[in-house]
Amino acid sequence: MGLSRNVSLWTGLRYKGQGPYLTFILHRVGGLGMGIFVTIHILASFLGGEGGVLVNSIYENWMFQIFIFFCALFHAINGLRITLLDLFPKLIEHEHEAIWIEWAVFLPTFGIAVLAIVTTALGG
Amino acid sequence: MNHSKTRQLSLAKRGMTFEILMWYFTRLSALAMYALILFGLIGGLIMGARNQMNFADVMRWAFMPNVTHVQSTDVPDITPWASAFWKSAASALLLLAVAHGVHGLVVIADDYIASAGGRKIVRLLSIVMMLSMMAIGLYILWTS
Known about the structure:
The complex is a heterodimer. Chain A is mostly helical. Helix content of chain A is 81%, strand content 0%. The mean pLDDT of chain A is 87. The N and C termini of chain B lie far apart (60 Å). Chain A binds chain B through residues 1-3, 28, 31-32, 34-35, 38-39, 42-43, 45-46, 60, 65, 69, 72, 76, 79-80, 82-83, 86-87, 113, 116-117, 120, and chain B through 27, 30-31, 34, 37, 54-56, 59, 63, 68, 97, 101, 104-105, 108, 111-115, 118, 133, 136-137, 139-140.
C-alpha cells in the first residue's frame, strides 16, 4: 500500500520545505476546509429541520467565518499564483518572489476582513 | 547536484490523457470562478452594500449568489435578485466548484492510496459524490 515510507515521522515533521511547502499545506487545508464546509452546508440546507438550523447557526458564528474566510481567500490567492505560473511556465523561476507577493496581497486583505468581521460581531 | 535535462515532449506525443485534461480544467475553472465571484461581488455591492448589507452578507452573495444568502439583510426587496439570471450564475459557480473540488479530493487521495484497485474505488466514489452534490445543489438553487 501507499503508506510505507522510507523516512520516519520525525524526519517528515522536520522537513524544511519553507515557503513553497507552507503554501502547499495551506492550499490543502483551505481546499479541504471549504470542501467539507460546503458539503455539510448544502446537505444541511437540503435536509433542513432542527439539525440543519443548528449547523447553519454554527456557520454564522464570527469565529467560524474567520476560519472559512481564511480557507477561501488563501486558496483563491494561492490558486491564482499556481495558475499564472503554470500557464506561463517561464515565470516559475520567480516562484519565491511570487509567493512573497502572494503574502503581501493575502495578509492585508485577510487582516481587514478579520477586522470587519470582529467589529461587526463585538460591536453589534 | 544532478542537473538532468527536462523532457520536452509535444502534447501530441504525450497524448491528451484524462489527467492532463483535468490539470487544465483545475486551472481554467479557477479563473472562471474568479470571474463569477468578482461578478457576484459587484452584484452584492449594487444590491445594498452602502447601508443595507454588512461585510458577511456581501461575501455570502459573492461566493454564492443564492437569494437565501441575503434574506436577513435590510435590502427592501430581494425578489429581483432571485431571477433566472442570478440562478444561472449561481448554478455555473456550483458546477465549476463541485467539479474542481471533487477532483482536488481525488488528487489528495492519490497521495495516500497507491494501489490500482484503491484508486479505482476513490474515482468511483468521487463520481457518485460529484453527481449527487451537483443535483442537490441545483435543486436548492432553483427551488429557493
